[in-house]
Amino acid sequence: MPPAPSARTLPPMQQAPASAPTPPVPSTGYTRLFAVPEFRAVFAAHALSLLGVVVGEIALSVLVYGLTGSPLMSALTFALGFLPHVVGGTLLAGVADRFPARRVLVVCDLVCAACAALMAVPAVPVGALLALRCVPAVVSPVFQGTRMATLADVLGDGDLFVLGRSLLRIVAQSALLAGYGLGGLLLTAVAPRHALLITSGAFLASAALLRFGTRRRPARAGRAGALTGDSLRGARQVLADRRVRVLLLLFWVPPMFVVVPEALAAPYADALGAGSTGLGLLMCALPVGAIAGELYAGSRLRPAVRERIALPLVCLMLLPYLGYALHPNLPVSLLLLLLSGAGAAYTLGLDQWFVRAVPQELRGRAMTLLTAGLMTVQGVGMALAGAAAEFAGVTATVTGAGALGTACCAALAVAARRTEERDGADRNMTDR
């Protein structure tokens, strides 16, 4: 198991206090999470908010297309779900630590519920609909970062935290697989504006679960100056430590390359003559592989093993994309994507290192920064994939992503190992 970070991972005044001891638990398995009442509330709220997000995205896209008749405007409603994350993740990150976590989570849900309810008003013009679409995207990284930091309070910062974070990711991936199909079916029964009212109700239910299902905890840090300045200072503090920077890059860089085949699934399916069925399978293969990989690692592997395989997995996960150079048929392409998706299990080991490296008083800001960066780099990766495919073609672009991504991941793995060894040496020299 990698050594715990020493006091030098961030300035001494920011060192995390010792976590409250947690009762002994079995070494593996997700079911033990549900023995924690607060986690049950967080989990149910997560599922409801995902329902709200998926239904809202589909309903708003259909509504905007119906009002404008423009495919560009319809697509823009989806893009606006990604782009504002960087704003919330940098300028509002301080909210996660300056205020009690439960209050932040509930207010974020209420803001999203209000926006969805306003979208359902018939007189709202398209420009206002798109503006309202941006608001939840701005508060989303704050909500997700605060929730992840709260998980460490609810579950401790050991293996239960890793499994809890993993389970929320698995639910999110599963929701993407099933949610859009179910959302489409819903719109055959109700109008888009009525579906937006369902979205608003889902966010209200999530807010109620968090308000009454979790206990109040004080803010992690005091309010020092203006929110924007405090958020930027917090980001600088988080990024000041080399170990934390490397871990953040390990969260961000692999997904930027992993999304390339998804971004190019439509032209690739067309080139294969696979039709809409093949396109759907290509879009599903990566998340199915990710779900399978995380489920196996979380339920069958011990914490020490998950940490031991994290860096080898991150170095291997993009290698299947090199197989695109052989112009594989649909079944082989699906197998390559499944293998690459399964490599996402590396995040379980990475989660443990990250929560050790970040002091408690900066945890909310660090998680918010992580979330915002992750959403942003995926959008950047999709855009770059499209641009590269215009000149090099789909198979060359995916193959190039595999080669370049593997090189970047290997460099980051070496950097992570070096920072781990440095921190271990520092701890030994200071007898910590």
Automatic annotation (TrEMBL):
It is found in: Cell membrane. PANTHER family: INTEGRAL MEMBRANE EFFLUX PROTEIN-RELATED (PTHR23513), STAPHYLOFERRIN A TRANSPORTER (PTHR23513:SF11). It comes from Streptomyces thermogriseus. It comes from the Bacteria. Signal peptide: none annotated. This is MFS transporter. It holds the Pfam family MFS_3. It is a multi-pass membrane protein. InterPro entries: MFS_trans_sf, TM_effector. Its main location: membrane. The chain crosses the membrane at residues 41-66, 72-92, 104-124, 195-213, 246-266, 278-297, 309-326, 332-354, 366-385, 391-415. Keywords: Cell membrane, Membrane, Transmembrane, Transmembrane helix, Transport. Residues 1-24 are annotated as: Disordered.
